[in-house]
Amino acid sequence: MNLVDLSWRNMKRNFRLYSIYFISMLVGVVIYFTFSGLMFNEDVVAAIQNKENYKTVIFIASMIVFLFIVFFILYANSFFMKQRKKEFGMYILYGMKERQVATMVFFETLFLSAISVSSGILIGGLLSKFFGAVLMNLMHYNDDISFAFPLEAIVSTILLFALLIVIITIQSYFNVRRVQLVELFHAKEKMEKPLKFSMPLAILSILLIAVSYYMITIGDKDIWKDHFKETLIATTVALIVGTYLLFRQFSGWILQKMSQSKQYFKGNKMLWISSLRFSIRGNTVNFTFNSLISAIVIFAVGFIAVDYAVKGDTVKKEYPNHLAFSTQDAETQIQIEQMLNDSHPIIGHETITGIQTEKILNRKPFFSYPEYYTEEFYLFPESQLNAIVDLRGVGEKVDLEGEEAIVLTRGLDEPTKYKSPQPELTVLEDHTFRVVEKIRYPLLSVPTSPSEESTGPQPSVLVISDGAFVSLKENHTLSSYEIYKIEDPKTSNDVARNIYDIVMKTEGAYYSAYVDSYSLNTESSSLVLFSVAFFAVIALFALGSVIYFKQLREATEEREHYAILRKMGVDDKEIKKIIRKQLLFVFLPPLILGLVHSWYLLYYTVILIIKDLPSLTTIIFSVMGLYVLTYLIFYVSSTSIYYKIISEKNTR
Question: Distance between CA atoms of 587 and 580, rounded to whole angstroms?
């Protein structure tokens, strides 16, 4: 029998051990190929407005995915090698050289990789239509996506996973080479000792977590602004070390107290508590890993999901005009309206006429960030603002008298009602107005183009009374603008682009479209949400695999103990209860602390800051609920797997 035959035989004999390793690699290939496929999918690329940004984001995301997969597969391989130390010891005892054992492992890895890469590419290609449709849905595009197997994605997947095979082979070789024969035979027979409780370390763990929480609460202070990187690193390290010490000290202490209670010998408490006390040392790192992964996943997905919702809501407020542009000649105006009605029928239309003033250098009293507004003001009568309020169906009408005026701003400025003495603004050389209020209500939004969200500062708008406007307009040049409300503005990219080309033939013309900002903001936030969702899936899969590896090892080692319990008369129903209680102690503490960490992060970075998003708490609790449900599935499946392993006949 040669090494190739032996490798194939090992794979068939140890199916369960190989299956999780195979599934880990298969999922990695599917996810990586999905990202690569989306980067080269012609249907997706054609639908995207900002193609360069799209390819850059997807490329970076695919590289992050691959690096995550590398570390995860190396972890899985490390576990795989530890589980087979006794087997390798037998091979070496029978005369095989370390190099031959490593070669055998190489063939096994090669077989698994060939199957997983080919299967992963096939599955990834078949799923490309689904994931492409998900991305289009997030971006609110209606484009159809077809199945795709881009050659570039196939080649990059094969090359990168070939590199991974080389890395795994090197790791396996060194793992075999550095272990002595005696250690190989006794690899699974080392008994862990119960953890000893240390009061100073327990107090330190609480202090570290408390300090990191406090640093999160003062995120708006100077220490974060002046030393952001240093503060972030210190806070992160404190949270990680505090979490580890908390589990290391209190998990063992709780089990110790439970073993000293009067109820210890009642029911099956003694059986599952004693087993946990001797395995808790090895579980401490897993507790920390699971807790931190839980916190990261919930926080990242929750934060990005809220950002996605906020951007959609912000665009509606900052770009309330579906289309707005400088008035064209009669023939061009008819052409534009015909184009709109052919694709996105006009719901409403208003023409507003204003007066452009000279440059006003001191605009600080009226704008918090004057650099984002034009130096010239545009004067509009109150009746035209009220007409736009009716057109949009959003906002409040105004009623001005005499020299009263209202400044219109964007989201950067807080609405303000000025008390006496009210600030004054002199325009057109000798006309002074009293500004009674500052309203966050863009009449003319920031100028846009189909490829840029902003092409210049937002027009500074001053709304004055109708009487004052009538007296001014006779002696000054007027500027007119067309405001349109259309059906389904989110998909009006093509017609908006055509109108832009027509309008901008005139030098200095104004143009702003809701869809321009919506497309760019939605594309970027959708890409980030899509990528983070994939990262979350990978993290969850890694978390589930780590739990599975740990339970697989512990269940295999505990098989003889449960066989003894059965001989003593403990039935299967009681054994299942023991397993459920034992694993509940393993699963529940990391989940609870992970939820607390993530809630604290989300509360001080999202909930307290964002005030005007009605769906905010719904989004956050939905993410948390979905994660808890996934975690519950891990728990239930782990108890089932654990029971099956300890119920198998021991052939050792």
Answer: 10
Q: Which of 565, 567, 591 is nearest to 576 (CA)?
A: 565
H/E segment holding residue 376: strand 373-381
CA distance 61 to 24: 19
Residue 458 CB coordination number (10 Å): 22
| Contact status, residue 252 vs residue 194, Cβ threshold 8 Å | yes
Judge whether residue 271 has pLDDT over 70. no
Contacting residues for 320 by C-beta, under 8 A, at least 6 apart: 392, 394, 442, 445, 514
Q: In this structure, what token pair is assigned to residue 567?
A: 């001989």
The structure tokens 């890895």 sit at 109
CA distance 107 to 90: 19
- The full DSSP string for 545-602 is HHHHHHHHHHHHHHHHHHHHHHHTT--HHHHHHHHHHHHHHHHHHHHHHHHHHHHHHH
Strand, coil or helix: what is 41?
coil
CB 253 within 8 A of CB 202: yes
User: Comparing C-alpha atoms, which of 257, 174, 277 is closest to residue 586?
Assistant: 277
Distance, in Å, from the CA atom of 88 to the CA atom of 81, rounded to the nearest integer, reads 9
Residues 6+ apart with CB under 8 A from 591: 290, 291, 294, 628, 631
Beta strand segments in 441-567, E:
458-464, 478-486, 511-513
Check if the beta carbon of residue 122 is closer than 8 Å to that of residue 26. Answer: no
Instruction: Check if the beta carbon of residue 78 is closer than 8 Å to that of residue 170.
Output: no
pLDDT (tens digit, 9 = 90+) per residue, 489-527?
887 888 998 999 999 988 889 999 998 888 777 777 888
Is the model's pLDDT at 652 over the cut of 60?
no
Q: Give the pairing of strands 431-440 and 424-427.
A: antiparallel
What phi and psi, each to the nearest 5 degrees, are found at residue 651?
A: -105, 10
Return the minimum-mean-pLDDT range out of 87-101, 261-275, 293-307, 484-498: 261-275
Q: Which two tokens stand for residue 500?
A: 């832009």
Q: Which residues does residue 424 pair with via DSSP β-bridges, in sequence order?
A: 434
DSSP conformation letters of 531-552: HHHHHHHHHHHHHHHHHHHHHH
pLDDT-derived band at 651, boundaries 50, 70, 90: very low
Cα 500 from Cα 503, distance rounded (Å): 5
Read off φ and ψ for residue 229, nearest 5 degrees. -60, -45
Instruction: Give me the helices (H) in 139-193, please.
Output: 151-177, 181-185
